[in-house]
Design brief:
- The protein has a 4-stranded mixed beta sheet, sandwiched between helices.
- By secondary structure, the chain is of the alpha+beta class.
- The chain is globular, with a radius of gyration of 16 Å.
- The protein has helices spanning about 10-20, 25-35, 90-110, 125-140, and strands spanning about 45, 55-60, 65-70, 115-120.
- It has one domain: VSR Endonuclease (Endonuclease, Chain A), CATH 3.40.960.10.
- One of its GO terms (molecular function) is endonuclease activity.
- This is Very short patch repair endonuclease.
- It comes from Candidatus Brachybacterium merdavium.
């Protein structure tokens, strides 16, 4: 099970992979713009878990302890949009499985530390996402609407 990324299968694949960002994705920016316009202030790329500073929350409302993740469909194995790559399957299948397991662990750790965790997919409507986040934040993180986010 190789953990080092394999050579790209083509020049186009190499350019695509190099263009991927860890933060400030278009989905994150769209939601953040709406949150800011609604008057909410937040931290980005926040290390909410002091035991693991490498795991970072996309958007954090530290005063009310609400952590937001906006997950890419490819990297986090979206059940609606994830397509297994045809090349280097022996690398990608366990890589995405590890990402999904880490997502579950991150939710569990943060919730155990008293955070309310909301996860969304990059394809979710940014207006609806921002509205759900704002409702949770304005309730002090206590009243999470039942249809908010995706399962951990």
């Amino acid at each position: 099970m190789p953990r080092t990324p394999p050579e790209a299968s083509s020049e186009n694949a190499r350019r695509t992979m190099q263009a991927n960002k860890r933060r400030d994705t278009s989905a994150e920016l769209a939601v953040r713009r709406r949150l800011h316009a609604s008057g909410l202030r937040y931290r980005i790329d926040y290390a909410a878990d002091p035991t693991d500073r490498r795991r970072r929350v996309d958007i954090a409302f530290t005063k009310v302890r609400v952590a937001i993740f906006i997950d890419g469909c490819f990297w986090h194995g979206c059940p609606d949009h994830y397509v297994q790559p045809k090349s280097n399957v022996e690398y990608w299948r366990p890589k995405i499985a590890r990402n999904m397991e880490r997502d579950l662990q991150s939710v569990e750790r943060l919730e155990n530390a008293g955070w309310t965790v909301l996860r969304f997919w990059e394809h979710d409507d940014p207006d609806a996402v921002a509205t759900s986040i704002a409702a949770t934040v304005r309730s002090g993180g206590r009243n999470r609407p039942p249809d908010v986010g995706r399962p951990g």
